[in-house]
Amino acid sequence: MKIPNEIRFLARVGAVVAIVLIAKCVAHYFRGEAIQLNALFTGIIAANVFLMGFLLSGVLSDYKESERLPGELGACLENMATEVVGIGLSKPEANIKPCLNRISQLAADLYGYFYKKVEVADLLEGVNDLTVQFENLQSSTQGTFIARLKQEQSNLRRTIIRINIIRETSFVSTGYLLADMITFLLCLGLVLTFVDPFYESLFFAGIIAYLMIFLLLLIRDLDNPFGYYEAGSSADVTLAPLEEAIDRLAKLALSAAGPKPAAKVAVAATVSAPVSAPVSAPVPVPQAAPTPEPKSKKKGKSKRGYLGRGSEAVSRRV
Question: I want to staple 190 with a disulfide (CB 3.0 to 4.6 A). Which of 16, 92, 132, 205 is the partner?
Answer without folding.
Answer: 205
